[in-house]
Amino acid sequence: MSILLAVLLSYAYSPGDSSWNLVTLGNIPERAILFAELAAKEGGRSAVDLATMLEMAGRFTEAEHCYSLALNSANDPLLSEWLENRISGSRTLDTLVILSTVISNMSDADAIDISVEIPLPVSHTPYQRIELLASAFVAEGNLMAQHIDLLPSRTTLVLPLILHITQHPYNFRPLPAHYPGIAGSVSLEDISSLIRSIPMPETETGPGPCLEIAYLLRDRAADAGLELHITGGLLRTGTDSLLFHAWNQIPVNGMPIDAALFFADSLRGIGHCPTDIIPLWNYEYTDGHEVSVFYPQQNINLDISMQAAFADPDFIERLLKLFPMCLITRK
After folding, report:
1. How far apart are CA 54 and CA 86, in angstroms?
2. What region does 142 belong to: left with phi over 0, alpha with psi -120 to 50, or beta?
3. From 16, 169, 234, 258, which residue has the greatest number of CB atoms within 10 Å?
4. What's 284-310 look like in SS3?
5. 25-44 pLDDT, tens digit each
6. Does 16 score more than 60 pLDDT?
7. Is the Cβ–Cβ distance between 151 and 110 less than 8 Å?
8. Residues 131, 166, 264, 2, CA torsion sign
9. H and E: helices and strands count for the chain
10. Structural contact between residues 105 and 111, judged by C-beta atoms closer than 8 angstroms
11. Alpha-carbon distance 267 to 272, whole Å?
């Protein structure tokens, strides 16, 4: 589980669960905000409740200001980190990200005829635009691919992908009460009940608990007649750390449903798009993997991973001069 989600589970500031029973998953009534403003004058946790409610209402500039005030008086390191994440999540993001696919041949023999696939990064409108600046991959439909004729023994190859991401904090509220399903509509309350029926893994299994939860919710939603996709992306933690994350999305309108986050904060888990969560691609085309590698040799041991990091423009310029990459092309 990521640091962000662990902190949220420890400090469950959830207006959907605690703000005087005036807030629902669908909307943030103005009356609830007024009550929160009155309570915040007393100090303490109420200031954080107000900031959270303002964020849920889509009043991100006001929320950032309130979170900053709460940060000034926070004494607990975990709470301070959580507040810093909420502040960054309430601001517009305009940054460069390098996704590096790392393939190491751990064998004593050369590897040949290797095919590498990653999902194609796509913009998530209306709140995000992704521009693919340069890449070692070539776009092929919903995937990006690269073929490696030869990877010598005990060597490592890094395949970079450079993205320019512009993202504004966004909220889908007020949420529709019903969503089109396979046989009739599915209510927002039904979706909430589906999420609550998902067991939270006690230990990580497979690629990670968030991906396991996303698959469970997708399958249970399908049984209930609701189509969900699995979205992959990044969590921003601290000032410069990026962690891979997965959640669900309703394809008809692009609304996110983050079941792992829902357990910590029910309002933030549905229909909320802060900039400390960065969607990148649809996992449906790669079976939940950031990287898929195919090769014919049975005696070859390849170590495969993907890394994500922020990069400044000067670094990108030097990188392109040292290692020229193709502009994004499509077969």
Report:
1. 12
2. alpha
3. 258
4. HHCCCCCCEEECCCCCCCEEEEEEEEE
5. 888 878 777 777 776 666 55
6. no
7. yes
8. positive
9. 10, 16
10. yes
11. 8
Element (H, E) at 278: strand 277-282
Q: CB under 8 Å to 152, separation ≥6 — which residues?
A: 105, 110, 111
pLDDT at 49: 83
Taking phi over 0 as left and psi of -120 to 50 as alpha, with beta for the rest, 314 belongs to alpha
Which residue from 292, 289, 121 is spatially nearest to 211, judged by alpha carbons?
A: 289
| Tokens 């046989």, located at residue | 183
161: its two tokens: 């992908």
In DSSP notation, 88-124 reads HHTS-EEEEEEEEEEEEE-SSS-EEEEEEEEEPP---
Highest mean pLDDT among 137-141, 179-183, 260-264: 137-141
pLDDT tens for 175-218 read: 988 888 877 789 999 999 999 999 876 654 444 689 999 999 99
Q: What is the pTM of this model?
A: 0.85
Quick one: pLDDT at residue 321? 65
Rg, C-alpha atoms of the chain: 21
- pLDDT, residue 319, reads 67
What is d(CA 271, CA 173) in angstroms, rounded to the nearest whole number?
Answer: 7
The share of the chain scoring above pLDDT 70, in percent, equals 84
Q: Are 286 and 34 in contact (CB under 8 A)?
A: no
